[in-house]
Amino acid sequence: MKLKHLILLSIICCSQSVFGQKANQQPKTSGNPVFPGWYADPEGVVFGDEYWIYPTYSAPYDEQTFMDAFSSKDLVNWTKHPKVLSKENISWFKRVLWAPAVIHANDKYYIFFGANDIQSNNELGGIGVAVADNPAGPFKDALGKPLIDKFVNGAQPIDQFVYNDNGHYYMYYGGWGHCNVVQLNDDFTGLVPFEDGTVYKEVTPENYVEGPFMFKKDGKYYFMWSEGGWGGPDYSVAYAISDSPFGPFKRVAKILQQDPSVATSAGHHSLLHAPGTDDYYIVYHRRPLNDNARDHRVTCIDKMTFDKDGFINPVKMTFEGVPAQKIKKSKKK
């Protein structure tokens, strides 16, 4: 009996050890970067019970001819969806696909993108829009031309972010140190004037460079943007708070910047907010330490928190990332 007990005990211990190893192999946090490859300018969005990230493929301009996407049920395990948008489906494309913004409306999915990196009003390019039946694409150009193709108020037509404010879709965009907001029509094929008759409103805050982002919390509008140079270590994120989506946006503080123990060039971000919770995650790109290559940027996620007065606390960059969090299914009435 003693021998049988010893054998049985050995089998149990061995089994527990094997299962323990398997359990340990499962990632407990997202890790940073959250997926392999050089990716920047990540747009985080929630569709149903899934988190999605749409980044720029970070490479020399003539190689930036497509965009991949990544989806996850829990922020930890990500599935790659290659080439959700590519040059073959944009008739006016020449080079450089940048900084996607993605929304779900009209039972379709729309991706807004910057293309061609125009330097003047005499070139073809700017902000385009493509449409698909599902978030993994393939997205196809909706207009056959750019939606915005000119410099207005000094803003290069790039780095668009689309914000839904009670059924009004506003697009914030702009490089070269200027930011405009425009109002989109119902099918996102054009712009409609604001109540005062203007089409473009400049909303540029102090130190703004590019990469605008907007969200609303507790009745306040939080406007965020990137500062510094995207190719250097001082890239960073700052924000303002306003009672209106049109500002004025008075700069509050910088909340994301390089950390000499973690990474440099932390910027061009978006947010993921787990529905039904107070949990906010900042999705951004950064450059690995001791790597100065311009296009070596990776996509990361860290927790973003607020103080008791509603101000954003400085974000601590990590290598661990964030723990798993599934999206709670909404109860149907």
Spell out the key features of this protein.
single chain, 333 residues, mainly beta, five-stranded antiparallel β-sheet, four-stranded antiparallel β-sheet, 1 helix
Give the SSE map.
Elements: H1 2-25, E1 39-47, E2 50-57, E3 66-72, E4 78-86, E5 97-105, E6 108-115, E7 126-132, E8 140-141, E9 161-165, E10 168-173, E11 180-184, E12 191-192, E13 201-202, E14 210-217, E15 220-227, E16 236-242, E17 251-256, E18 263-273, E19 280-288, E20 298-304
Antiparallel strand pairs: 1-2, 2-3, 3-4, 5-6, 6-7, 7-8, 9-10, 10-11, 11-12, 11-13, 14-15, 15-16, 16-17, 18-19, 19-20
Q: In DSSP terms, counting alpha (H) and pi (I) runs of 4 or more, how many helices?
A: 1
Helix content: under 10%
Main β-sheet, in a few words? 5 strands, antiparallel
Multimer state: single chain
Estimate the global geometry from the Cα principal axes.
globular
Instruction: Give the SSE string.
Output: HEEEEEEEEEEEEEEEEEEEE
How much strand content do the residues show?
Answer: 35-45%
Class from secondary-structure proportions = mainly beta
- The chain-level mean pLDDT equals 92
Parts with pLDDT < 50 across at least 5 consecutive residues = 1-23
Notes on the protein architecture:
The chain has one helix spanning 2-25, and strands at 39-47, 50-57, 66-72, 78-86, 97-105, 108-115, 126-132, 140-141, 161-165, 168-173, 180-184, 191-192, 201-202, 210-217, 220-227, 236-242, 251-256, 263-273, 280-288, 298-304. A hairpin with a 6-residue loop joins strand 10 (168-173) and strand 11 (180-184). The relative contact order is 0.14. Strands 9, 10, 11, 12 and 13 form a five-stranded antiparallel beta sheet that branches. With 333 residues, the chain is mainly beta. The chain has one helix and 20 strands.
